[in-house]
Specification:
Blueprint: H1 12-25, E1 37-42, H2 46-49, H3 59-76, E2 81-86, H4 105-108, E3 132-136, H5 147-153, E4 158-164, H6 166-179, E5 183-192, H7 196-209, E6 212-214, H8 216-225
Helix pairs in contact: 1-7, 3-8, 6-7
Length: 226
């Protein structure tokens, strides 16, 4: 009897081919209605964007011009722009398990403390007076924050996700948004992480099961034409 690890099941090739196609090219048909949309700028903070910061992700600097253009267009169209900033109390009482994983060792060692210089949104895209800034302590911008309440107050049913990091805070926020029945538009070239391969892998997963994954120029075109 053939080992199950090597056994080819009837129809398996077709299933795998369909899955591969969906990972690469399928997208949900989520339209962008500017009147019911908000832009989420996830954790593009001094500590993640500024060159040489303890949690610097260089790719953040490369996406910044496109993020800035998207923020400016949304402001022109009165689309709410919401910023998140990841930070922790110096006591660590809000850390949960966050400081126990390798990714967050710099936080355990003192980065991103509430009130510190590395917490505010990066200076080139700083929030304007009146724009919502949400401080969070977990990857998802929805976890233990008022983001959902605020979005509902804005009559929003669609969120555009930009920021840092694709496969952690941005991806977690996208999933939580989907679970709350928001249409998720995930900017493929306005999100960044520290691995090109894992950036692409996350886009494939989101595209197949959670979000419409499109580049910034397509987002700008669609909100401009609506």
């Amino acid at each position: 009897m053939a080992d199950r690890d090597d056994q080819a099941y009837p129809g398996e090739a077709e299933i795998l081919e369909r899955a591969a196609d969906q990972y690469e090219s399928s997208n949900p048909d989520f339209p962008i209605d500017p009147g019911r949309t908000a832009l989420l700028v996830i954790d593009l903070q001094e500590g993640f964007v500024a060159e040489g910061a303890r949690m610097w992700t260089p790719e953040n600097l490369r996406i910044l011009p496109r993020v800035k253009a998207l923020i400016e267009r949304c402001r022109t169209l009165d689309i709410p722009v919401i910023f998140t900033e990841h930070a922790h109390d110096a006591s660590g009482r809000d850390k949960g398990l966050m400081w126990d994983v390798p990714l967050n060792r710099p936080i355990r060692e003192g980065a991103l403390r509430i009130g510190a210089d590395d917490v505010p949104t990066y200076r080139e895209i700083a929030p304007e007076p009146g724009e919502k800034v949400i401080q969070k302590h977990r990857y998802s911008a929805f976890f233990d924050t008022d983001l959902h309440t605020y979005l509902r107050g804005c009559d929003v049913d669609t969120v555009i996700i930009t920021g840092c990091m694709t496969n952690y805070c941005c991806g977690a926020t996208a999933r939580d948004a989907f679970f709350r029945d928001y249409k998720v538009i995930f900017g493929s070239d306005v999100t960044a992480t520290d691995s090109r391969d894992l950036h692409e892998a996350e886009l494939k997963t989101l595209r197949r099961g959670y979000a419409r994954v499109i580049p910034a120029d397509e987002i700008l075109s669609e909100i401009g034409e609506s």
